[in-house]
């Protein structure tokens, strides 16, 4: 089976609130309160052709925010 034709694809969800505030993206240390929260999930390419947006908890914002799909 060709990799480009898989129905289920892995996507990365990133907090849109942290991105808007201009937080440093290359923050490696977890103990620092600055950073961008990301989740990894899967979606069905045929039923959801548009970008996925889910409401998830962001530990940096300390609230539930919209997490949008980003490109790898």
From TrEMBL:
Cellular localization per UniProt: Plastid, Chloroplast
Keyword list, A-Z: Chloroplast, Plastid, Ribonucleoprotein, Ribosomal protein
Family: Belongs to the bacterial ribosomal protein bL33 family.
PROSITE patterns hit by this protein: RIBOSOMAL_L33
UniProt-recorded name of the protein: Large ribosomal subunit protein bL33c
Gene Ontology CC terms, in alphabetical order: chloroplast; ribonucleoprotein complex; ribosome
Phylogenetic classification of the source organism: Eukaryota, Viridiplantae, Streptophyta, Embryophyta, Tracheophyta
InterPro entries for the chain: Ribosomal_bL33 (IPR001705), Ribosomal_bL33_CS (IPR018264), Ribosomal_bL33_sf (IPR038584), Ribosomal_zn-bd (IPR011332)
GO molecular function (one): structural constituent of ribosome
A Pfam family it matches: Ribosomal_L33
GO biological process: translation
NCBIfam families: PRK00504.1, PRK00595.1, rpmG_bact
Organism of provenance: Rhododendron platypodum
Keyword Ribonucleoprotein applies: yes
């Amino acid at each position: 089976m060709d990799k480009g034709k898989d129905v289920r694809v892995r996507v990365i969800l990133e907090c849109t609130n942290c991105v808007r505030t201009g937080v440093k993206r290359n923050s490696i240390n977890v103990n620092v309160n600055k950073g961008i929260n990301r989740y990894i999930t899967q979606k069905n390419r045929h039923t959801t052709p548009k970008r996925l947006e889910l409401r998830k908890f962001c530990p940096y914002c300390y609230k539930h925010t919209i997490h949008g799909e980003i490109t790898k």
